[in-house]
Structures are given as C-alpha cells and as structure tokens.
Amino acid sequence: MNGTEAVRLPAIYETDLMPTNVTASDEYFDFVTWNPCAGAKRYSLNPHAYQDDEWYLLSNGSVLRPLTEVSEDRLLDYHQYCLARVRSYEYPEYLVFYCEDEYTIEDENNGGVIYSYGMLASVPFLVATYVVYWLLPDLRNLHGLTLRGYVGCLALAYSMLGVLQLTPQEQIPNGICITFAFIIHFSFLASFFWLNVMCFDIWWTFG
C-alpha cells in the first residue's frame, strides 16, 4: 500500500448487524493508540483470506465475529482488540488484531519454544550421522545411501522449522514464509519416503 491511497475505516453496525449512520471517526469514538497484546502474540482477522474471520464493528465499540466456532471469542470487547493496517496485505481498510487469553498464549508459547529448541538440538546429531556415513567407505552402500537421504531431509526440515517457529511472525515476509513452507513440507515428505525405502531394504536383506 502506498502513501497516496485512502484508508477506509470500518462501517458501524448495531448489535443485530443492521447498518447505522454512525461512522468510525473521532466524532463518535475515542481512538487510543496502544497494543492490547503487549508481550503476547497477535492474531489478525482477515475475512479476505478466511471466511470464518468475518467481523463487524458494533456501535458500542465491540467487535462481533458471527462465524467463529468458539463462543467465547464471538464478541471482542474494546480492550481485547485493536485496528491496524498491514502493508503486506495491501488492503485499503483496517483489520482487527486480537490476542487470546494470556495464560493460554503463555502455555502455547512455552510448549512451542521447547519443541523448537528440541528440533534444533537434534540437527547437529543428524548432520554428524550424515557426515559419518558419507566419509567412511564401508558405509557407502545402499543402506548408507538411504540413511543419508533420510537424516539429511530431517536435518533440513528440523532446522528450517525450528528457526521459523522461533522467529516472530511479523518479521517474516509472506514470500519467505511460503518458500520455507514448501521446503519444510517437501523435506518431511522426502524423509518419510526415504524411511520407506530403508524399511524395504531391511526386509529385502533380512526377510
């Protein structure tokens, strides 16, 4: 979005979702610049991409999400959300950003961080296994080839996924995120296929 485009403020609705003549301007509302999700993850409601993210700004300052499956998240109070623009989305209107319950986010973040560091901790051992099977001539057989393919794909997937999960979402451009997603998905699929080849080789050799 360039600086010459006009920014559209959201329309105002009554609690029964009937449009009103009220506009989202400082004549009817008090705008406060703040971050309701300080220290926690923000989630955007983007109805352009997800139908369930449809939202309506009500005349009492709340945000209604009629299509959400979680009843507790159907109505967002004024202190639970903020209106913001995202340049990468290139939409002319403001989007709603909100945060989940503080304890839920903290628990999820702790679990995700531990899981990410666990994946990154396993990468050096996978790389060491790959190097050993690549350097030693006695291990350069069919089983060694399949094992190198397996651990190599796992090392690539774990390293990229771990780094991606530890990086704040707002710092990752959409193009890089999509590219990483394809590489991670391909690496995990390839590792499972290499594992199938290893299983067949073991069955063929010792079966």
UniProtKB/TrEMBL annotation:
UniProt keywords, alphabetically: G-protein coupled receptor, Membrane, Receptor, Signal, Transducer, Transmembrane, Transmembrane helix
Subcellular location: Endomembrane system
GO molecular function: G protein-coupled receptor activity
Membrane topology: Multi-pass membrane protein
Family matches, as InterPro entries: GPCR_Mth-like, Methusela_ecto_dom_2, Methuselah_N_sf
TM stretches of this protein: 114-135, 147-164, 176-204
One Gene Ontology term, aspect cellular component: endomembrane system
Main subcellular location of this protein, as a coarse class: membrane
Keyword Iron attached: no
UniProt similarity note: Belongs to the G-protein coupled receptor 2 family. Mth subfamily.
Designated name of the protein: G-protein coupled receptor Mth2-like isoform X5
Source species of the chain: Temnothorax curvispinosus
Lineage: Eukaryota, Metazoa, Ecdysozoa, Arthropoda, Hexapoda
UniProt gene name: LOC112465896
